[in-house]
Design brief:
The complex is a heterodimer of chains A (about 375) and B (about 290).
Chain A lengths: L3 E10 L2 E11 L4 E5 L6 H9 L6 E6 L2 E2 L10 E4 L11 H11 L4 H15 L14 H13 L5 E5 L7 H18 L2 E6 L2 H7 L2 E6 L2 E6 L1 H6 L4 H6 L6 E9 L6 E5 L2 E4 L2 H7 L4 E7 L4 E4 L8 E10 L3 E8 L2 E8 L9 E6 L4 E5 L8
Parallel strand pairs in A: 3-8, 3-9, 6-7, 7-8
Antiparallel strand pairs in A: 1-2, 1-4, 4-5, 9-10, 11-12, 11-14, 12-13, 14-20, 15-19, 16-17, 16-19, 17-18
Helix pairs in contact in A: 2-3, 2-4, 3-4
Chain B lengths: L11 H32 L3 H4 L22 H8 L3 H32 L5 H10 L5 H14 L6 H25 L3 H10 L3 H8 L4 H17 L2 H5 L8 H6 L2 E2 L2 E2 L1 H34 L3
Antiparallel strand pairs in B: 1-2
Classes of the chains: A alpha+beta (about 375), B mainly alpha (about 290).
């Protein structure tokens, strides 16, 4: 059980900063996902935690102890690599036992620990094989096994399931989450897949271009994105963004946001957030907050036409073109509609996000 | 997965090509094996028997080649009258010595060149291989001067150093490619597991063993078969087998029997080495190819 604190950390490659002034903490036993697109500095961050990269500036502490100068072997971390990095010439058993052997643990205990970890990951029957003879999913389990036999202070995962096929990835998400809870080891998990982050993490740190954008629980990140970039990165299908304008609808306290023909009446809470801002802003609407209907059920619905329909099995994505823009709606599987057919659309005003048009920050 | 076999169809051209390649193989085998066969057979013949030849065009007389009483006297003479035991040892010591030094230094240098980034790396790499561009003869005179100054002429250590100067660039060149093919993550995983940098380097040595094996063979062959270095740098005190064999050709007397026996003594160890290392090389290379 170790608390990790990253404070004001920079990573420079030559003159190019990969990580800028990064600060966050990971509580003891917490599952923290670092989420971001490729090149956002998330892997550099993980490698600095592992000791595989020097820390250009700032400090990282494990339980209050500064680890900047410690080589990887003295940090008591275990890392799972994206390409597994198993020793190709060693059997699964020896791959898993390597770290324990290096620490001079007696053979009997090593055997016992390897067996236990193998049983946990259901790879007991693979122990005498070599990595070459394993499937991707099995290799990945071995890589995790190599990490957990150690009972390290911190687990570092670098996109460990990125190379698996979609079905296996879904399965492994559950397994990894369960495993982490059982072991209760502080875990920092790097991924570019927002679904992995949302489904597994206790908290998510979202990074872009080396800068921490937001850190919070998955619900926080999803429901209250700190800026337009986070809002666009998290969520599948992605959030709709529209250039919009705040206008008064009748009285000064009755505000609407208009984007072309689409208009959303703002709640009191939103009015507070606007804090007097008028004029242009960016409107963010998650597809599930958009409702569609073939005929206008009430006043206030915007008319448009169907641009495209994408049935996904469980639900259907409908892209609606209206005068002045397009919006993606997520609706039920029973939706039927032809291309270019007329349709009506409305937005759940309690679920809209407002962003500053100039700097993309969420208006809060 | 689709079959990797090359699909061929029978055409007159392919039949012809098949016959032609069979003929080529037969001619090639005769061309390669016959000299070795003659050398081996002559080495166990008495001198008079060795020079018995059938008349030109008399194919039935071919039996005279096999009509002899085997004798090992040439071999016995080599190791009693001549000092072929010492020469053999000199050959082995200089070949293995330079191979071992080249492998140790070469793998470390290749590792550094493969993993580290530093200014002038490309130039350094080019310079290393450029030392092999000049023919041995061209550098022999200055090298001889240096070696004489260092008191290394005519000694086995001198020969080992001489071979190493030529094998080391080669080792670096070959092994760098093999290190480049080993993913760095494996070392990183090893360091996270608790290795020091040096232990991590050792951990990936098995992965470049095909390269080391291939290089060892080439290195040993180079030193074993070398004549020029051995005759000049090794002259006198550190005579190796090829030099000693050439010494059997004397102006007034060419000792054919001993020369044939010396040929066998020189060739046989390399053939055995090839046989021993072949299996290992092939398994090693496949492991490298299907890196998991």
């Amino acid at each position: 059980m170790t608390k990790v604190i990253v404070s004001e950390v920079w990573k420079m490659y030559g003159k190019v900063p990969a990580v800028r002034d990064l600060s966050f903490s990971c509580e003891s036993g917490e599952f923290l996902c670092v989420l971001g697109p490729s090149g956002c500095g998330k892997s550099s961050t993980l490698r600095m935690l592992a000791g595989l990269e020097h820390i250009s500036a700032g400090e990282i502490t494990f339980d209050g102890k500064r680890i900047n100068e410690l080589p990887p072997k003295d940090r008591d971390i275990a890392m799972v690599f994206e390409n597994y990095a198993l020793y190709p010439h060693k059997t699964v058993r020896d791959n898993m036992a390597n770290a324990l052997k290096l620490r001079g643990m007696p053979g009997a205990e090593i055997a016992q620990r390897v067996e236990r970890a193998a049983a946990m990951l259901q790879i007991g029957q693979l122990l005498d094989r070599r990595p070459m003879e394993l499937s991707g999913g099995q290799k990945q389990r071995v890589a995790i096994g190599r990490a957990i036999v150690r009972s390290p202070k911190v687990f570092l995962f670098d996109e460990p399931i990125g190379h698996l096929d979609a079905k296996l990835r879904g399965h492994m998400r559950g397994e990894l989450k369960r495993l982490q809870r059982e072991l209760a080891t502080t875990t920092i998990y790097v991924t570019h897949d927002q679904l992995e982050a949302l489904s597994m993490a206790d908290r998510i740190a979202v990074m872009n271009e080396g800068v921490l954008q937001q850190i919070g629980t998955p619900q926080d990140i999803y429901n209250h994105p700190a800026n337009e970039w986070v809002a666009s990165f998290v969520g599948e299908p992605p959030m709709n963004f529209l250039d919009a304008e705040v206008v008064t609808a009748g009285s000064e306290t009755d505000l609407e946001v208009r984007s072309g023909a689409l208009c959303v009446r703002l709640s009191d809470a939103h009015r507070h957030r606007l804090n007097g801002t008028r004029g242009g802003l960016r409107l963010g609407i998650r597809p599930e907050a958009v409702q569609v209907a073939a005929a206008a059920p009430a006043a206030g619905w915007t008319s448009g036409s169907i641009y495209a329909v994408e049935p996904l099995g469980g639900d259907t994505l409908v892209e609606v073109a209206f005068q002045g823009g397009r919006v993606l709606a997520k609706t039920g599987a029973d939706f039927r509609g032809e291309m270019d057919a007329p349709i009506f659309v409305t937005v759940d005003s309690s679920k809209v996000h407002l962003f500053d048009a100039t700097n993309g920050r969420a208006l809060t | 997965m689709a079959s990797r076999d090359i699909v061929t169809y029978r055409t007159p051209a392919s039949v012809l090509a098949g016959v032609a390649s069979a003929v080529f193989v037969v001619v090639f085998l005769i061309w390669t094996i016959l000299p070795i066969f003659i050398m081996f057979v002559s080495s166990i013949k008495d001198l008079l028997e060795a020079f018995k030849l059938p008349a030109v065009g008399d194919w039935s007389g071919i039996g005279v080649f096999f009509d002899f009483t085997p004798t090992f006297k040439h071999y016995v003479d080599l190791f009693t009258q001549e000092k072929f035991g010492t020469y053999f040892f000199n050959s082995v010591a200089s070949a293995l010595g330079s191979a071992a030094i080249s492998v140790v230094l070469g793998s470390m240098a290749a590792y550094a060149l493969s993993r580290a980034e530093f200014r002038g790396k490309k130039d350094l790499f080019f310079w290393i291989i450029s030392t092999r561009m000049a023919p041995v003869v061209a550098v022999m005179v200055p090298l001889f001067a240096i070696f004489r100054y260092g008191g290394l002429v005519g000694s086995t250590p001198g020969l080992i150093i001489a071979y190493t100067t030529f094998n080391l660039p080669f080792a670096i060149w070959i092994l760098k490619g093999f290190f480049d093919n080993v993913p760095y993550e494996i070392e990183e995983a090893s360091m996270v597991d608790g290795s020091t940098r040096l232990q991590a380097f050792k951990a990936i040595i098995p992965l470049v063993s095909p390269g080391i094996g291939a290089f060892l063979v080439l290195c040993v062959l180079f030193a074993w078969n070398d004549f020029l270095f051995a005759s000049i740098i090794g002259s006198g005190g550190a005579k190796t087998l090829p030099v000693a064999t050439s010494g059997l050709v004397q102006p007034q007397n060419i000792q054919w029997g001993k020369i044939m026996a010396a040929g066998v003594v020189t060739t046989l160890p390399m053939m055995l080495l090839g046989l021993v290392i072949r299996r290992y090389l092939v398994t090693g290379l496949t492991m490298g190819a299907v890196r998991g």
